[in-house]
Amino acid sequence: MVDGQVNTLQDVVYGFMPAQILHVGARLNIADELAGGPRTLGELAAATGTHGPSLRRLLQGLACLNVLGETADGRYELTAAGQQLRADVPNSIRAAVLLFCSEAMWRSWSALEYSVRTGDIAWDHVHGSSFFDYMDEHAAESTTFNSAMADRTRAAVPKIIGNYDFSRFTRLVDVGGGNGQLLATILTSTPELRGVLFDQPAGVSDARDMMWATGVADRCEITAGDFFAGVPTGGDAYLLKSVIHNWDDDKATAILRNCRKAMGDKGTLLLVERIMPPRVESPAFGRIVWSDVNMLVNTFGRERTEAEYGALFAAAGFELTGRKPTSDDPVDYQLLEGVPA
User: Fold this and answer.
1) pTM of the entire predicted model
2) Total structural domains in the chain?
């Protein structure tokens, strides 16, 4: 499977195997162990505390996935693709691999049929609590989730900055902004802008370090709270990236209504989301479809068409006035702009 496109149905049948090989490789920190250069099987086994002959079999699987290669003298080295499994690189996907291939995630996906038959959330059925409540109760998994979301945002930031002019605003409120990666970058590129970062306490726990590290701490307020109860007032723009797709229509509308109340009559609403086509006529849309089914299984949310987002805007008191792509990729993030109706 490449970019959401299925090569053959047989590839799908065996798809769980390479996913788990990748997952165990990430859990064993193989990429980080190879970051300094090629190492022998014995060195890797000692560093990872694994059974050498069995580790070799895993390494062969990772080689088939183009994560690593074997040198002429029998040592193992990272490929360019394998660098993405390192924890300390800007384009890391390690946290995403740990999240989406975790036991908890696989257990919920094993109940996909339950969701399809009932319309209920498989995660809640399997784990006995909602996805977000589960994360609140499991610190390690929550850290992995937040890291995966931060990595995804980091990758998207240059495209968002490069395709939208934030300089026309004076006070930007980032609702559900996590550790502040996106807001910090926007503030860095827009020197006259001030920002407010708003999320749950766990979400903003590392935000202050982010703001100091990027030199924008003096222009950014950090506020913890619940966006279902309300959001900070006084912004002339409210930004939500990958927030609304996590919720059903009622909850999504409630969040947007709180933004509407907070901004007054002259603000701007900015959503950064992937947009589902009205009809899926190409396998190129696989990534957004897989994301949609993932939310069927795990959360209240869904991916939406532009018309469906327009309906949400209207229900919350906004008019959808524009849609700006962040790249030429049809399943990449889109920036939806709205104003008070």
Assistant:
1) 0.88
2) 2
